[in-house]
Amino acid sequence: MTLPPEIRPDIDDGIDRKVLAQLRQRFLKVNAGRLRRASEALSSRQQLVLRLLPLLLDVNHPLLPGYVSAATPAGLSGFVPDDELLAEAQRLTRSFSYKPRRGNPALPIHGLFLMGSLGTVAQAEQSDLDLWICHAADLSPQALGELRRKCDLLEQWAATQGAEVHCFFIEPQRFAQGARDARLTSDDCGTSQHYLLLDEFYRTALWLGGRTPLWWLVPVYEEGRYAEYCETLLSKRFIRADEVLDLGHLARIPPGEFIGAGMWQLFKGIESPYKSVLKLLLTEVYASEHPDGACLSLRYKQAIFSGRLDEDELDPYVMLYRRLEEYLAARGERERLELIRRCLYLKVGKKLSRPPRLGRKSWQRSLMERLSAEWNWDSRTYGLLDSRSQWKVRQVLLERRALVNELTHSFRFLSQFARLQQAASGINPRDLSVLGRRLYAAFERKAGKVEFINPGIAPDLAEDTLTLAQLPASEAGKPPSWALFNGSLSLQEMADFAPLRRARDLMELLAWSHRNGVIDATTRLSLQPGASDLSEFELQNLLGCLQQAFPLPLAEVPESALLRSSVPAQTLILVNVGLDPLRQHSQMNVHMTTERTDALGYSGVRDNLVLTLDQLTLNSWNELVVNRFAGPHALLDCLRDFLNGLPADAPPPRLLVRCFCRNRAVAIAQRVEDLIRDAHGQLAGGRGGRYLLQVRQHFHLLQLIPGEVSHRVVEGLPALIEHLGDTPQGGGFLQLDRHALEGEDLALILPLGRVDCVQVFYRLDEGHAEISVLDERNALWRRRQPYDSEESLLLPLQRFLQSVQYRRNAMLPLQEGQGTVGAEILFYEVLPNGHPRTRRIERRSAPQALEALPYYNVQAIIEPGDGQRARTTLYCNHREFSELEYGDGLFQAVAKHILGQRSGQERYPCYITDLDLTAMQDGGELQTVHFLRYKQSLEQALNRALAEA
After folding, report:
1. Residue 64: DSSP 8-state
2. Each residue of 643-668: pLDDT tens digit?
């Protein structure tokens, strides 16, 4: 019989039982196609499990798998096995014979469904079989216990057949009301995702037997009055109650579920990003269209009602991809679209660059060929993705940029969605903060932190052969550095190759190589020491120390560690790396005593044998941080840093001190270790002593000395603004003569200052804006700039201030039962616009644009340099630009790159979106005003380079 192209079972026009039957047959036809596809991708033994599951839950037989007792609940609604299935059961045990039930006995199993990737293009050999067992509401706890034991035995039997089955119990009435007692899939985050789980169920579930979902028969346009429509179907006997089961509707998904779903996927994505990106982006699509968007299951149902029954287009993963493609194409986000295509391709796992196994092309391979042909992929793209198991550093770095961009974008989006929708009421804010800290620890850059580049992208980054070389400074302003090259290269050959990694200091480079597994026990290292004293012996010992102090893989970070500020857990101090102190002193014509016992040379500072120290610290969040100390006060600076980093309420870090220089290495290491341990012991015991006296002069760098707000006479507006930008001690205020600044914005702005609050004041004036910021301690920052719209004026500043808060909050302990609470960011408009005399200031709402709106991410890390000059490293959408590579042309290189990302190479301003000043603290507390000053300076240099490019 030919079905009509579209079925509309309208209540008002009268519902036809024949039409409902035809509609049910459409769903069953699609279901049968997916079951056939699922079976084709299984082994013969796994196929047996799939076919027998309905029968094994319909009967109790002592010789069949899963038997517990004759009293175990059994009986599947409407199930009648065919002769072929009975023959399969009899092959398991010849004594089995099926006896049809007589009369109208109770059948406690209402429906069986498989949920997940089975029967989809993403089905893999190791795909789980998540079996939903929908049962009667009146089963007693004892009966459910019997059924649970039966299912445990079925899971064990399935495992012997090579199938991983997980059974989940569903009581439909309770489930439809949002009540459930346990996880319902092997990939389930818990009770916070009822509707999103139901959405996934309706579009992926395979019906194995029993009653069919009542949801199938409700038109999409009736979803909003689902209960009324279902009541009509049942009360007027259009369908029989014992033929259907009701799991609920999807008329509206509460916004809080998007937060919960996103949090769960982000948590998993930190270690396995490819598996999470597709679902994360779907969550973004749903949230960005809330409350008007239709979920995928409704699109699936509408397609079946409309007679569009193409198995390929109704494949759950194809439907998912089509929806994401539609969303990203409409936004012009080509790079993100390419990422989800790669994620889908890798999820499917059919290597199209290679011929099919056994010469037989699977339906999954054929579908991926057709789909990827639409993307215009070539053989090079297939070959690159199919060789992912062999990817090394360069390709992993490229892929990491895209994946980390996506994960951090998703976190920003979810956080702001929660604020805008106030949807986090059902989500513990502490959980969101803990997740943010996991992301921070895994991906956030800061000065000295060793970047982990391989979050589940490739299985092994170890290189066979590498060259480690010290490179001299260049005339282009590039400072001396250490570099790691592929292969075994001579000094002449290096000029023709780009290094895998550059670093200013040797231990920074070796720590990066160790943390990312680039150098392992099988790597052959060729050394080009340059002007250093580094030997092969010392290099191998340095690598051995890293493996001893920081064995891989690192243990998982427990939530308890993330609830408090990070603390040092393991510290490795390496003395005189790549330096021979005796040779260094001889070159400087420094007299060395021949008979001495103290490596620190207290008989004279000039013959101190401790020239440099590299301190490597692994903290409780698994962040590995490298700091180098050099110069006449290197040891004192290192000791100061170590002592002031000790936690007050936690054990001190495990300490390892080593030295491998050519002369007196063991004595030097022991002397430094004794000094540090003695100093720590005296500090902990509250006793003064020789060593503390030696470093006391440096302690002031880490102490905040409270002071009084002094009254100062400041003449002239420029001088006043400069003074107000200074750090007020204790968050003080200035009292101004009311007539001193008559007509100026400051006369109205300054009295509004509040401690622990960041206040943004803006005044619009014929294409320009005057922005004033009072930070959390009432220091003032002002800027005048052109603008196109209020949104383009305020959003970049808001994002930057939020990133400052994000970094600060990561350093604070979480409050009991809550997330971290930072300074509130408030916005005010100075009115009237364009008027020379200010009359009033009005409070404004914060910019309300979701982070789903694309913007270009430019992060900067500032570190102390030589003399008064700071060192700058920029990251453009996670691509690194450093002075080591570009020297004096750093900003020109960044400007050229940014212009290349813009259509038409427009020269509109670029903004710094994130800034790390960790290394610039010098012991003091950084305020928002400090970040704003650096931001303004960097933007001026960057936009000047953009204008000149």
Report:
1. S
2. 888 887 788 999 999 999 988 899 99
Compute CA 315 distance to the chain's CA centroid, rounded to the nearest angstrom. 28
Write the single-letter amino acid at 549. Answer: A
Show the 3-state SS of 720-752: HHHHHCCCCCCCCCCCCCCCCCCCCHHHHHHHH
In the sheet that 206-210 helps form, which strands lie side by side, from edge to edge?
A: 165-170, 129-135, 109-115, 206-210
Each residue of 334-351: pLDDT tens digit? 999 999 999 999 999 999
| Residues counted in the chain | 949
Non-local (6+) Cβ contacts of 357 within 8 A are none
Separation of CA 845 from chain center: 29
Asked whether 572 and 656 are in contact (CB, 8 A), the reply is yes
Backbone angles phi, psi at 764, to 5 degrees: -95, 135
Terminal CA-CA length for the chain: 69
| Two tokens, residue 46 | 């796994």
Q: What angle do CA 292, 295, 299 make, to 5 degrees?
A: 110
Query: Within a 10 A sphere around the Cβ of 604, how many other Cβ atoms?
Result: 12
Instruction: Please give the structure tokens belonging to residue 257.
Output: 């579920």
Whether a cis peptide bond, with omega within 30° of 0, leads into 4 is: no
Please say if the pLDDT value at position 156 is more than 80.
yes
- 764 forms bridges with which residues in the sheet? 769
Q: Which two tokens stand for residue 573?
A: 């101090």
**If 0-12 CB within 10 Å is exposed, 13-18 middle and 19+ buried, where does residue 853 land?**
exposed
Distance set, CA 91 to CA 52, 88, 488 (Å): 12, 5, 63
Using the 8-state DSSP alphabet, how is residue 76 labeled? B
Alpha-carbon span 864 to 872, nearest angstrom: 9
Q: Cα–Cα distance between 335 and 342 in angstroms, integer? A: 11
Instruction: Give the whole-number percent of the chain exceeding pLDDT 70.
Output: 85
> Which among 37, 34, 103 is positioned nearest to 75, based on CA atoms?
103
Sign of the alpha-carbon torsion through 655, 658, 664, 668: negative
Q: How confident is the model at residue 589 (pLDDT cuts 50, 70, 90)?
A: low
Helices 790-809 + 429-443 axis angle, to 10: 90
Residues with Cβ within 8 Å of 30's Cβ and at least 6 positions away in sequence, in order, are: 304, 309, 311, 314
Cα–Cα–Cα angle for 749, 753, 755, nearest 5°?
Answer: 165
CA dihedral 60, 66, 68, 69 (to 10 degrees): 10
Q: Do 77 and 109 meet the contact criterion of CB atoms below 8 Å apart? A: yes
Rounded to the nearest 10°, the torsion over CA 619, 620, 622, 628 is 0
Task: Give the number of C-alpha atoms closer than 13 A to the C-alpha of residue 604, restricted to the C-beta side.
Answer: 8
pTM to 2 decimal places: 0.87
pLDDT tens-digit map of 896-929: 999 988 877 677 888 999 999 988 876 667 899 9
Question: How large is the C-alpha radius of gyration of the chain?
Answer: 34
Residue 608 phi, psi dihedral angles, 5° rounding: -65, 125
Report the distance separating Cα 517 and Cα 510, nearest Å. Answer: 10
3-state secondary structure of 397: helix
DSSP letters, 130-194, are EEEEEE-TT--HHHHHHHHHHHHHHHHHHHHTT--EEEEEE-HHHHHTT--SS-SSTT---GGGH
- Judge whether residue 426 has pLDDT over 90: no
Alpha-carbon torsion (398, 402, 408, 412), positive or negative: positive
